[in-house]
């Protein structure tokens, strides 16, 4: 049994409102993480065809702030699997529809979800199939990015 990366692709759109901002008018990290966890879970559920729970999230990189009133786009897709686990890359970008400034990357993270059966026990997930060059490129990029991110974390811990 196999499912494709495209089967898992999920995109959510939010607008940054005052309740999700800090005193500088920028997105609260917790609000962004919540959106990322939801989007990642939807991608994992679409892929597995089962309920999933968040098992872990790697180091989160907050690359740039999101300003009050900006549109937030959260994208997620499955890039690797284990027997019952599903690895999902989640990226966030911001856009200001009132300006001609291009979208900008704001946050990235890798999540691991575990698929559950009706009794709440871990259950096997499909193998990941990448049927197009675009899917293979996304998968390969996610694998490389995760390795690079983990290498950077290890180096910081050694300092």
What's the gist of this structure?
With 159 residues, this protein is of the alpha+beta class. The protein contains three helices and eight strands, in the order βαβαββββββα. The protein has one domain: Thiol Ester Dehydrase, Chain A (Roll), CATH 3.10.129.
In terms of topology, how is this protein built?
Blueprint: E1 2-4, H1 5-8, E2 10-15, H2 29-48, E3 51-57, E4 61-62, E5 71-81, E6 85-95, E7 104-116, E8 127-129, H3 133-158
Parallel strand pairs: 1-8
Antiparallel strand pairs: 2-5, 3-7, 4-7, 5-6, 6-7
Give an account of the 3D structure:
The structure is a single chain. With 159 residues, the chain is α+β, with helices and mostly antiparallel strands. The chain has a single domain (2-158), classed as Thiol Ester Dehydrase, Chain A (Roll). Helices cover 31% and strands 35% of the residues. It has helices at 5-8, 29-48, 133-158; strands at residues 2-4, 10-15, 51-57, 61-62, 71-81, 85-95, 104-116, 127-129. Strands 2, 3, 4, 5, 6 and 7 form a six-stranded antiparallel sheet that branches.
Structural class: alpha+beta
CATH architecture descriptor: Roll
What percent of residues adopt helix (DSSP H or I)?
Answer: 25-40%
CATH superfamily: Hotdog Thioesterase
Instruction: Count the E strands.
Output: 8
CA-based gyration radius: 16 Å
- Characterize the largest beta sheet: strand count, sense, and whether it forms a barrel: 6 strands, antiparallel
- The dominant shape is globular
Query: Which CATH class applies here?
Result: Alpha Beta
Count, helices: 3
**CATH fold node name:** Thiol Ester Dehydrase, Chain A
* Amino-to-carboxy terminus distance: 44 Å
Kindly estimate the percentage of residues that lie in beta strands according to DSSP: 35-45%
Domain module tally: 1
Low confidence ranges: none
**Overall pLDDT:** 94
Q: What's the SSE pattern?
A: EHEHEEEEEEH
